[in-house]
Design goal:
This protein has eleven helices and eight strands. It has 273 residues and is an alpha/beta fold. The strands form two sheets. The protein has a five-stranded parallel β-sheet with strand order 1-5-4-2-3. Helix 9 packs across helix 10, helix 9 crosses helix 11 and helix 10 runs antiparallel to helix 11. The longest helix has 22 residues. The model has no long low-confidence stretch (mean pLDDT 95).
């Protein structure tokens, strides 16, 4: 049984991708990280020796500290963080336990280089509808919670990418874009190796809504309607993205936990029609 300051891999797996997921801090030493550079979705790598330089970033947050096997390194860092008022837990068994359980990991090979603040920077066309909102949701929930998104005129995307070191997406000719009948969301799932049933289900809904194929899933039309409504509610694309995060959170939880649940108004015994 995990101690009061530990969280099991199964408990953590239920929090991944949710808006209330704690900050995940991967403090594996270079030797262990180089042997397996994958990371738990949403985790950020930090050096334990630099704790005092990044500790303040997590003030007022909950955090899960991840080392190789959940022993001295993560327990020491978590204890020091708790002493400074951060609600920190360790992952029981560390990254090794997560990997051995066959739970999703992210392939960092395709991850853009971070900026000076350690964030990935992405750029796409302004006035997003489906794919250009679904992809930022996926990145912030499963890849880089601190990712920054730039929405610019279509003709300027590649020049902005070049000038500011941003990664272009959902643009013809870009690496992160549609491939065949699949959309950019599909591409990101494949390249980051985010193989999870709920995300695969959600990708079908996104694909149908984004490519005018509502027949792919009954939910496609609903996602398209919500997306078009949001695009008309907000002139600022970042405000629209903030509002849409909750929509995708809801679709993801439905894909993960509620696809078998129905809702009806049952007739009361003896009641009229």
């Amino acid at each position: 049984m995990a101690s009061p300051t530990e969280i099991t891999v199964q408990q953590l797996s239920k929090l991944i991708g949710l808006p209330n997921c704690p900050a995940l801090i991967d403090i594996r030493i270079d030797e262990d990280f180089d042997a397996d550079p994958r990371f738990i979705p949403g985790a950020r790598r930090r050096l334990h020796a630099d704790l005092q330089t990044w500790l303040s970033h997590y003030a007022g947050q909950k955090a899960v500290i991840i080392c190789h096997k959940g022993k001295k390194l993560s327990q020491g860092v978590a204890a020091l963080m708790r002493a400074e008022g951060v609600e920190a837990e360790t992952l029981e068994g560390g990254f090794v336990a997560w990997a051995e359980a066959g739970l999703p990991t992210v392939n960092p090979a395709r991850l853009p280089a971070p900026d000076g603040k350690g964030r990935t920077l992405w750029v796409t066309r302004a006035r997003p509808k489906v794919d250009r909102v679904a992809c930022p949701w996926l990145i912030r929930r499963f890849v880089d919670p601190n990712a920054v998104f730039l929405f610019v005129s279509p003709s300027e995307v590649m020049d902005v990418a070049d000038r500011f070191g941003a990664e272009p997406f959902d643009l013809e000719g870009a690496f992160w874009s549609h491939r065949g009948e699949e959309c950019t969301f599909d591409t990101m799932l494949r390249e980051f190796e985010l193989d999870q049933p709920a995300l695969r289900h959600l990708s079908v809904i996104v694909r149908g809504a984004d490519t005018a194929r509502p027949d792919l899933a009954p939910e496609c039309a609903g996602l398209l309607a919500a997306s078009l409504g949001l695009s008309r509610m907000y002139r600022d694309d970042l405000h629209q993205l903030d509002a849409a995060m909750g929509v995708y959170d809801a679709f993801y939880r439905w894909c993960r936990d509620a696809t078998e649940e129905a809702h009806d108004w049952p007739m009361q015994s003896g009641g009229g029609k």
